[in-house]
Amino acid sequence: MINVIKVKDYEEASDKAFEIMKSYLKPGKVLGLATGSTPLGLYARMVKDYKENNTSYKEIKSFNLDEYVGLPIEHPESYYAFMHRNLFDHIDIDDNNAHVPCGLGDDLEKNCREYDEMIDNDPIDIQILGIGSDGHIAFNEPGTAFDSKTHVTDLHQSTISDNARFFDNDISKVPTQAVTQGIGTIMKAKNILLIATGSNKAKAVKDMIEGPIDEACPASILQNHQDVIVIVDEAAASLLS
Ligand code: GLP
């Protein structure tokens, strides 16, 4: 069941997300982390909290959702670099405990299998999610099987266009494939916290919460999860009845 929390704007959404996240910042917890612009406010609050309150991540593990295929980790837009720049480099998490899928090498299938095994061994306590304007979660595009595991996927044209802003607004520079946790992998998380802000997410939010559970809107499967919180700002909630 999806519990919806409505807030005014992005800042309030980030405050609320941090308030929920704070209770998981304890030794032994496993965090599921996301990229995109949406969680940046949450990560900024986690860094501030680390600096002001010495909240330690030494015994916390994390698993990111996805990574582009073929982008060197040093590339500023790799999700590995994104996570280091925005969170990992500013807290005391052990590098070996902060996992990001690997989109490099000859055997991506093996990378995917190993990633699922690691998550099975360390189940995620809280998974942070954003949502794509087409309803995708992680890089699970419309049509992805609800029981999918971590896999290699082709990005849809709308996702490539949405993400071109990170690649000099040049669509030809955006990678066309990614390694992503599957929808089945995400659904195993004990708790899920999805944040959606801005009017370009309104349609996806409506389909996720009020639409049929259908692979055409990957996020709609969250209606079947027992513990989901969705934080929406006024713009993203504007089409909800
Ligand atoms: C990418 C990521 C998703 C993210 C989505 C939305 O496609 N793979 O995990 O939710 O972008 O990004 P933003 O938060 O920037 O709108």
Calculate the terminal CA-CA distance, rounded to whole Å. 17 Å
Strand content: 15-25%
Based on CA inertia axes, which overall geometry fits?
globular
Which regions contain 5 or more consecutive residues with pLDDT less than 50?
none
Main sheet summary: 7 strands, parallel
Number of helices: 7
Query: What helical percentage do the residues reach?
Result: 25-40%
Strands across the major sheet, in which order?
Answer: 1-10-9-6-2-3-5
Alpha-carbon Rg, integer = 17 Å
Give structural notes:
It is a single chain. With 241 residues, the chain is α/β, with parallel strands linked by helices. The chain has one domain: Rossmann fold (3-Layer(aba) Sandwich), CATH 3.40.50.1360. The chain is 29% helix and 17% strand. The chain is built from seven helices and ten strands. It has helices at 10-22, 40-53, 79-86, 108-121, 157-163, 183-187, 202-210, and strands at residues 2-6, 30-33, 61-64, 66-68, 98-99, 126-129, 151-154, 177-180, 191-196, 228-232. The strands form two sheets. Strands 1-10-9-6-2-3-5 form a seven-stranded parallel sheet, sandwiched between helices. β9, α7 (202-210) and β10 (228-232) form a beta-alpha-beta unit. α1 (10-22) crosses α2. It is globular, with a radius of gyration of 17 Å. The mean pLDDT is 97. It binds 2-amino-2-deoxy-6-O-phosphono-alpha-D-glucopyranose (GLP).
Overview features:
single chain, 241 residues, alpha/beta, Rossmann fold, seven-stranded parallel sheet, 10 strands, globular, binds 2-amino-2-deoxy-6-O-phosphono-alpha-D-glucopyranose
